[in-house]
Every structure is written in C-alpha cells, then in structure tokens.
From TrEMBL:
Keywords: Pyridoxal phosphate. InterPro entries: ACCD_DCysDesulf, TrpB-like_PALP, TrpB-like_PALP_sf. Residues 40-232 form the Tryptophan synthase beta chain-like PALP domain. Signal peptide: none annotated. This is Tryptophan synthase beta chain-like PALP domain-containing protein. The lineage of its organism: Eukaryota, Sar, Stramenopiles, Oomycota, Saprolegniomycetes. One of its GO terms (molecular function) is D-cysteine desulfhydrase activity. The keyword GTP-binding does not apply.
Length: 468
C-alpha cells in the first residue's frame, strides 16, 4: 500500500518547474519526477506576538510559516504532500481512465479533504475512505461535510470496514486503482515536504525571516517531519545559508497517544526496527535517500538524517499534551484560546485580495485545530513563557501552520447526504457529540433535527475554481 503511488517521469504538458523548490535545487529530477503546481507558493512567513504573555508589556514573539495559505481552495501542509502524488496519478489516469483513487484516513482527516479537493482539479475520481472514527469534534465533522459537498461518487465509512478492506485489496491485487497512504506518507509525499523546508531555507537566505533556532511541528503520519529532516540535511549539503544556529532543533509533537507512548517507552523513532515500519522517519529516510542517490544525488542522506533526528529533533512525549487522538488535550485547548488576542503581521498572498475584509481578518489568525496545530502551539506557548523568566536573548521560534485557513464547500448538498449517512447509529452519535472548541469558529451540527445554517457560515464555496 505504501508504494501504490510511485514516482513517474513527467508528462508532456508544459509546467514551470522553477516553481518547485526541490526541482530548482535538484535539476536532475526535472525529467524523472512528475510534479504538478497545485497551490500557490512560496507561502509567506509572518511575525506574530501574544500580547502580555509574560506580564505587562512582555509579549511572546514568534514567526509562522503560513502553509495554511498554500491554496485558495484548500491549504495546509497536505498540498505539498500531494504535488508529486497527484502528478503521478494524473499520468496513470491517461492510460487507465477506469482507475479510482482511494484515500486512507480517519473521519476528521485533512488528507481526505485535500486529496478530494485537489484531485478534482485534475479530473481524478477520488473515493474518500474514512477508516476510523476520530474523537467527536466539530472540526472533524466539518471535514466530513466538506467531503460530502464535493459529491464524490463513493464515500466509505468506518462502520463498514470490510467494504474498505475489499476496496484496498482490489486496488493492490486486482484492478488499476491507486491508494493514497495514511497522511500521504509515501516517498512522493516526503519529497513534497522536502520542498517545503527548502523553500523556508530560501526565505532565510533572502532575509525574509531570521535564521531560526526552533521549529515547531505536529507529527501524525510523520510525512512532514521526515521531509523536513531530509530537506534540512540536503540544504546543509548543498551549502544553503540556513539552519546554522548551533542549537537549532525541531520540536515535534505527536498527535496520537499511541505514537507518543511508543517513543516514551521504547524510543521507537530512533530504533533500527522503525526503519522497517512505513509510518516512521527512518523508513522514509531509507526509501527517499536510495531514490535520490540512484537518480543522481552525490550524497547518501540517510546517515545524515538519522544523526539529525537523534541530535536535533525533540520528540515530545508528554501524554497530557498529546491527549486523545483527533481532538484537543487540556493544554492545547488552553493555548488555542490565545488566538483571540494573537496579533499577526505580514504580507498576504495576492489571491487573498479577492476575499471580503472580514474573511481576510479571520484568515490572518491561524486555525489552531485540536487535531493537529494546537498541540505544538501549546508547547510553543510554554517555551515562550519559560523564556520570559530568563534574561537571555530570546530564541527565534517558528511555528509551522499545517491546518488550512479555509473550510471548503464544493457546492453539492452535503446536508442531505450527511443525514443519509447518519441513519447508521454510530455515525449519528459521532456527529451529534461533536462540539466547537474554537472561540473564533463557533458552530454546531445536529442530525436529523438541526439545519445547515448552524455551520455553513464556517465554510467557503470554492466550486467556481473547478473545471466543468
């Protein structure tokens, strides 16, 4: 399943490959690795502060890499994850027009939404598979509603696991269908995330942001973390003037308690065993490094990445911070309330000029979702508060914002479809238990007696972005 979507040479459609940071830095890949320019890059880096965090006139200051602005139709870190994968799928689809494209995610998965939305722009029939129920949470319900609003021909839910398994087995052994791995974590997804961190290195070199001391990142499937580690090692190898702080590190916060426990109890991320497990960085280090070396890179990145993971990545295993999968922990919920006072400054993408003033004001404050973003943000806030107690020069801290700024609506009748799915009792209970935790995004969903007016104002229609 991990290798269902592999690297393919690019097709004959002209694409400006200079828009890809990875292909700019590794030009030997241009004729060997398909890529599609979904999204709008580079994403900006904004300066942010939390007023009076450490007392009167003592603000907490940090930077934000605005991956949430990576697309006007659905942003977040999954856009980079999909750039090489969707390009390969589009090429596959030309010779296998009967193929379907199955996702693997939970009921609140951002990967499911991103694959469906951006796959639709390329004319790919994506079948979302919601293989596991996340904790009930309005943010998770909104992702399901977004999926339904794009009217996919098939949506598979966790209530019918045998149907999901059968579809995967057919894709693996019988037909020409393809499977997007969990979180997009395959070799192509990791290559996409390498491009993201190379882009940040270019912004540091250009003086758009100071060289950073600490980067904060959520860890789900480990795709983004793996790509960042490999990309930083590549940046250093090719002599980029970035990530040069002697104490530079990534603070990586797992969002699943099982992963946190595995690291806390067994050190799984650093174990040789993890090099055989697809959802851990050492597996990705091996696969990607071998591919790049085979294609022409003059260095084996794997030992460099393993050493960087050991010496420069702090894996947070605090079970209170990690909490339950798919929703806020108590520390993340407390930290997320700071979005009401957060002040953010920086240039917005040109496409945001088409938004209403109210939309622009809301978009500038990052969405601190309980599933992902709020957990590393809570650690960032804690570090800022501890730093405020010391007289030393503040560190340059950067928060990698992974949650999209937009909750997309594809134009179809998602409410009727949701009520049809809610005829199954487990689905109905999951929907009705979901509560809003964000003070900036209040809403509710109740089936069958509610109505869409209680949540649709949180969604933005984007169907005009798609080809007929």
């Amino acid at each position: 399943m991990h290798d269902s979507i592999g690297p393919l040479p690019p097709g004959d459609q002209p694409i400006d490959l200079d828009k890809s940071p990875l292909l700019r830095r590794l030009p030997f890949l241009r004729k060997r690795l398909a890529w599609t320019p979904i999204g709008v890059f580079p994403t900006p880096v904004h300066a942010a502060r939390l007023p009076n965090l450490n007392g009167p006139q003592k603000d907490g200051q940090f930077f934000i890499k605005r991956e949430d602005f990576s697309s006007p139709i659905y942003g977040g870190n999954k856009v980079r994850t999909l750039q090489h994968q969707l390009a390969a799928c589009a090429i596959h689809h030309k010779t296998h027009p009967e193929a379907k494209y199955l996702t693997l995610g939970s009921s609140g998965s951002n990967q499911n939404v991103a694959t469906l939305v951006h796959g639709k722009t390329l004319g790919l029939p994506v079948h979302p598979c919601l293989a596991q129920a996340d904790a009930p949470d309005l943010e998770n319900t909104l992702n399901l509603l977004s999926i339904l609003s794009f009217n996919p021909s098939v949506v598979r839910l966790w209530t019918k696991p045998l149907g999901i398994l059968a579809a995967y087995l057919r894709a693996l052994f019988v037909n020409s269908d393809k499977i997007f791995a969990m979180g997009g974590n395959n070799m192509l997804g990791v290559l996409g995330q390498m491009g993201g961190i190379l882009e940040l290195a270019e912004q540091i070199e250009a003086g758009e942001v100071p060289d950073i001391d600490v980067l904060y990142l959520p860890v789900g499937s480990t795709c983004t973390l793996s790509g960042h580690v490999l990309g930083i090692c590549l940046a250093k190898h090719i002599g980029m003037k970035a990530f040069e702080s002697p104490g530079f590190k990534i603070v990586a916060v797992p969002i699943h308690p099982g992963i946190g426990a595995a690291q806390r109890n067994f050190g799984i991320f650093h174990s040789r065993l993890s090099s055989f497990l697809p959802l851990f960085p050492r597996f990705a280090f091996s696969r990607v490094s071998k591919y790049l070396k085979r294609e022409g890179l003059d260095v084996d990145l794997e030992p460099l990445a393993i050493a960087f993971l050991k010496d420069h990545v702090e894996l947070v295993t605090d079970h209170e911070l990690i909490g339950e999968y798919g929703t806020h922990s108590l520390p993340s919920l407390a930290a997320a309330t700071l979005d009401t006072t957060m002040q953010v400054e920086g240039k917005q993408p040109e496409w945001m000029a088409s938004l209403h003033d109210d939309q622009q004001r809301k978009a500038i404050i990052p969405w601190l979702c309980g599933h992902f973003a709020a957990k590393p943000f809570a650690r960032l806030v804690d570090d800022l508060q501890r730093e405020g107690e010391k007289p030393a020069k503040p560190l340059v801290r950067l928060f990698w914002q992974t949650k999209s700024w937009i909750q997309p609506h594809g134009g179809a009748d998602e409410w009727t479809h949701l009520n049809q799915l809610a005829k199954e009792k487990p689905v109905k209970e999951w929907i009705n238990k979901g509560r809003a935790h964000s003070l900036l995004r209040r809403g509710s969903v109740s089936v069958p007696n509610g109505n869409p007016s209680t949540y649709q104002y949180l969604m933005t229609k984007v169907q005009e972005q798609f080809p007929c």
